[in-house]
Write a structure and sequence with these properties.
2 copies of one chain form a homodimer.
Chain A (H helix, E strand, L loop, with lengths): L7 E5 L4 E3 L6 H7 L18 E7 L2 E2 L14 H10 L5 E3 L9 E4 L26 E7 L11 H13 L5 E2 L7 H7 L3 E7 L8 E7 L6 E7 L3 E8 L5 E8 L9 H10 L3 H24 L6 E8 L1 H8 L19 E4 H4 L8 E4 L9 H10 L8 E6 L3 E6 L4 E6 L13 E2 L5 E7 L6 E5 L11 H8 L3 E3 H13 L20 E4 L2 E8 L3 E5 H25 L6 E5 H6 L2 H6 L11 E5 L1 H11 L2 H12 L1 E2 L6 H9 L11 H6 L18 H15 L1
Parallel strand pairs in A: 1-6, 8-10, 11-14, 14-16, 17-27, 19-29, 20-23, 21-23, 27-28
Antiparallel strand pairs in A: 1-2, 3-4, 3-5, 3-6, 7-9, 9-10, 11-12, 12-13, 15-16, 17-18, 18-19, 21-22, 24-25, 25-26
Helix pairs in contact in A: 6-7, 9-15, 9-16, 12-17
């Protein structure tokens, strides 16, 4: 019972406030307001996790050791903690400090103890912590012949009494260990309690003798090419290490479909691919733990995302069904499982949570990206694109969301491009072409200089100029288009050969010579066609979704993944990969799938949020949509045959269109359409 | 909505009744009344589990095919079932047959389909079925590109829609199998759902393509000497096979304490003993499955009981703590775990439930016996005794229950008896002594004849007369007492050597010659002392518990275990193993621990019942009770020094007491007391 004369306490940064009777521990006040303050030791003032800063009393600068303090003076427990572990002067243990008057309490934002801000994502969002795992220290009664309750049973009694955990389950592997752990800790023990869903019973997943103050989790995005992982403290929210490695499944096939084929052709193919990916996740876990100086036994929770085929292979599910219509997922909902079943080398009791898959081609990675970028949390119409071999596309806002996958193929990753290469030192990453002279200048990875600047040659000599990396392919084709070298239908203008030696005939088509050194680096007509096909597929998917929602523009575009991080949004729009949008609203969001996994790791509420959101998402199968093909054909032109790019036109001078377009159907002259359709069909079949 | 004009339907044998609108399927009516009728196929009339007999209409003999039938005529579904599987004329499928008028429905008591009576225990109790595992057949929607819900997710949808299971968990091992099983069953699938506690989420533990109509469970009592097992159909309640085998741990030590010593002395001792007992349970499971013609993969649930040391070793827990004060159990509450963790060779998803232990010396076997005999369900004061190396004693009624363990030692099992042997052909099992001549007659296992009857010699020749089995030791000592050969303080009267050559001096004491053939079989003074010590320990425990409850008599005595099954209650009382009681109320109840396990297997409500009962039981540690020693000393006399045996005196002519007894303190003459105390102390230390 509180009255209006009780002290008023304001918690920052949440701004939550309430009145509490004099003498209330600050920790209790925080909890009753739903302010998350960590505590492992259960108010014994030994874990130090519940530190807060008392910024003001009576909403004026407060001195802790003043005679009329609004907060209790440091007691014996805090003095002891200070002696043993050190407690900065402005810090208090909220389990011990009690309210004596009006207060402003700052829950520290730093990442060493008890941070509520754990990571600013690309869109500057705060992840509030509410992990599925909690550490709870208790002191268990010694065995008593008169009350012969078992060790485990007395432990449960204390976890209920001190922490309110009733109805606890216990991981089987702990049962033989309980008696030893309790005795080793002299009846003091720290239990890791896992509870994800409210509907499921909380579970003791790990035990340590005495006070144990470390709990970590991993967030992992299993990509076809790269596996990325964060190691995070579940107690502070701090990212301890982040790392990545190549997916070793690449040796079974570069792209997803070749891996599915491997499974279909080899009796133990599925088992091999599952072992490869699990071994890799295990190895990467070992690596981030080593980097972060963390004992893998302290890793207690894991959140995994991945495309449907990676998701299935990681779980040991045959992905063959995903390689053919109806692209049936074996499991689409979120999966809760045990790390020990998958052999990840972390704590035996650790859990794994896998985000739901959206559809047969739109996986848990897209769900992670959705969770991270949050179209469902916005009024604005957001387009979220994650480009890989397939482009996963999510479009919507808080009202309605649609999602699809488009078969872009690997051109954006440089795979079908004659001079394409992976991003590595010496690869061309930026290109500009002078429209007057048609002369290019470029930058290579490893040098800050443009190719026409003094000193570049030395860098080039050192690094070598080896090819064009994925993101630069967009740029060079776009610059060629802006310079008039290629027409809006993607044909390199052979007549320009008279003006510039860089335009050269090769067979029946022409190419553009970007660099002439030890190695000739050219953009061929086929390269341009490959980019056109890829971008048409992406754009057609986007267009289909916009049509489903009945919108003619998007307010904001999030480009996820490595590709999205390196391309210049302007050039992406010049080529017509993405629809017109205020360029300031087009943002690279990095590994949004991994960020989503991180969010679900640090706050289990996000798991429910994405599960509910995925159920709401309307799934569009591009292969079933007759309009897709039409959008695809229309999108072959640069930037597009039917859609206007008013925002882009303000930023860039686009070449004048040379063909007449029927604005209703998007049809241009019959001759061109039929050729483009033929190209499209041949390349898609 | 039902009205008073609706037909009245009476279900037998439960007697539950209610009115239902015309057209209500009989199965629905049964369910709404809480009458348990099995159904696997979900009303598709394919599983045949829901068969009932329609005994009467309008409470007069009913003809099923009469024109004014009170039950619907057989429809197409039942006709099809009859053609495919056969349906007796008086049987109906309750999912298809509908109520058309007043009915008496007999839920069949046979054990092939849907029996409610599954087993009559020694006390003639019906076990109503409510197993933790239920089979549910569903037909799952095929994959749909427009609604890309996963295979598993669509299965869950149907299990919710058809069977009302929401919030289902799925055993991890099934996740990679779901897609194959669904396709193999052409989208028809049977799921085994496990739900023990209401508070826990139901779990899909097994899946089969198509309709699967078999689910079994095992109930197992792991004794120190013998492991006993029942294999039961969870669908019908029928006991398919029962078997036992020797506990192979015997090679590590005959009795429990020597096995604990083995664990203490050998670094991998615990692991060896755990492996031995798990292997034995696995082997016995294989055996009962083979006997019953049951595929071990169809075994989905198991209930295990055992004394605390067997319980701990089976779970892989070091039992060392149980070998010394304070006899701390690592876990006392019930344990839910997975068969696959223990490697029992049954279905991968099968569960194991272990009954709670009562105290460090009173295990899950005593809990099972308590559940079976049910003192907590009675107004009468019941004494439940399970005699082994320790005697586990439970005393009480619905108001209050106490339990203890007494250190009887192995004498009752024949281990410390000179001519003692295990029950086997040729062992003496019954003995009578003529008080006039002191000549014995006896029976041996394998022959129906008394030793003084014609033809016995041929049997004896064939079988050999090899020793005295455990139960007969009680009988021979009691007969010796009744014949006056031993005094009430247990001394063989050497003076009788003059009257009979069967009384012989050996050293400073005398012995009684029971048989003189190839082998001499005698009862020595030491044998009598060993029995006296054992029976005193048992009786002292019982007396302590009676004292705790403040009762001076018991209404009924249940003697559990093999020992209890073979001894004659009269002789047990003559020797004063058990307190005075109407002999008609002293019953051998067989393997009550195993019966309790069976009950908990067939009806999960019994699990809650015994969990709650065990919490209520007051645990008495005899080692901590000063009165125990006094009771022990008093109990050395035959039948007892202080307690009267009025019921026994009506049945048997007891020898006249030769010593004066102080009824208040139980003290007899100082000389005798001190000798008995000395004996007692020497033998117990």
């Amino acid at each position: 019972m509180t009255s209006s004369t009780d002290p008023l306490v304001l918690f920052m940064p949440s701004g939550k406030r309430g009145r509490f009777p004099v003498g209330t521990p600050v920790l209790d006040a925080a909890r009753s307001l739903g302010v998350y303050v960590e505590s492992v030791c259960g108010g014994r003032a030994t874990c130090g996790r519940c530190q807060v800063e008392v910024q003001e009393g009576s909403f004026a600068k407060h001195k802790i050791v003043s005679s009329n303090a609004h907060i209790s003076a440091r007691g014996a427990k805090e003095e002891r903690y200070d002696r043993v572990r050190g407690l900065p002067e402005n810090r208090r243990l909220s389990c011990s400090a009690t309210i004596q008057g009006d207060l402003v309490i700052d829950v520290p934002q730093d990442t060493v103890v008890n941070a509520q801000v754990v990571r600013k994502s690309a869109i500057d969002r705060i992840i509030e912590r509410n992990p599925a795992v909690q550490l709870c220290y208790v002191e268990v009664d010694e065995p008593d012949m008169h009350k012969p309750l078992g060790d485990l049973d007395r432990l449960k009694v204390m976890l209920d009494k001190d922490w309110g955990w009733d109805n606890l389950l216990v991981s089987q592997y702990l049962i033989p260990q309980v008696q030893g752990i309790l005795r080793k800790g002299n009846w003091g023990v720290t239990a890791a309690i896992h509870r994800d869903l409210e509907a499921s019973r909380p579970n003791i997943i790990a035990l340590w003798p005495g006070l144990h103050n470390e709990a970590y989790g991993i967030a992992c995005d299993i990509g076809s090419t790269t596996i990325a992982m964060h190691l995070v403290s579940l107690l502070s929210g701090r990212i301890v290490a982040s790392s990545g490695m190549q997916n070793p499944q690449i040796r079974f096939g570069e792209d997803l479909m070749s891996r599915v084929s491997y499974v279909m052709m080899n009796p133990d193919g599925r088992a091999q691919l599952t072992k490869a990916v699990r071994d890799a996740v295990t190895e990467l876990t070992r690596k981030v733990c080593a980097e972060g100086g963390v004992d893998p036994n302290n890793v207690l929770d894991a959140v995994i995302v991945g495309n449907p085929i990676m998701h299935h292979l990681f779980l040991g599910i045959d992905p063959t069904e995903l390689g053919q219509a109806p692209f049936a997922l074996a499991v689409s909902g979120s999966v809760h499982t045990w790390a020990s079943d998958l052999g990840l080398g972390i704590n035996t009791g650790a859990r794994i949570y896998m985000l739901p898959c959206i559809a047969g081609h739109v996986g848990a990675d897209a769900a992670g990206a959705t969770l991270s970028e949050g179209p469902h949390r916005q009024d604005r119409m957001m387009l979220l694109v994650d480009v890989g071999t397939n482009a996963e596309i999510v479009l919507g806002n808080r009202e309605r969301i649609v999602a699809a996958s488009s078969p872009t193929g690997p051109a954006f990753e440089g795979a079908e491009i004659s001079a394409g290469q992976r991003a590595a030192p010496g690869a061309i990453e930026r290109v500009r072409i002078d429209p007057a002279t048609l002369e290019p200048r470029f930058k290579i990875i490893g040098s800050d200089l443009w190719s026409n600047e003094p000193g570049f040659d030395a860098d080039a000599e050192r690094l070598g100029i080896t090819g064009i990396c994925g993101s630069a392919i967009i740029e060079v084709v776009a610059e060629m288009y802006l310079a008039g070298i290629i027409s809006e239908d993607g044909v390199i203008d052979g007549a320009l050969a008279a003006r510039s030696p860089r335009i050269r005939q090769t067979g029946r088509t022409h190419s553009y010579l970007l660099h002439h050194g030890k190695q000739e680096i050219s953009v061929t007509q086929n390269d341009v066609r490959a980019i056109q096909l890829a971008k048409s597929a992406l754009y057609a998917g986007v267009k289909l979704l916009m049509e489903k929602l009945g919108v003619d523009h998007v307010d904001t575009i999030a480009l996820a993944g490595a590709f999205g991080s390196f391309i210049d949004p302007k050039y992406a729009m010049v080529l017509g990969l993405i629809p017109d949008c205020d360029l300031a609203e087009v943002k690279a969001v990095g590994n949004a799938a991994g960020t989503g996994a991180l969010m679900a790791l640090l706050n289990r509420d996000y798991r429910r949020e994405i599960e509910q959101t995925v159920q709401r998402i309307e799934k569009i199968e591009t292969a079933l949509e007759p309009r897709f093909q039409q959008h695809f054909v229309n999108a072959m032109a640069l930037p597009n045959k039917v859609d206007a790019f008013p925002h882009l036109a303000q930023a860039v001078t686009l070449p004048v269109r040379s063909t007449t377009v029927d604005a209703t159907t998007g049809d241009s002259t019959p001759r061109r359409r039929s050729r483009e359709e033929r190209d499209a069909r041949r390349n898609r079949s």
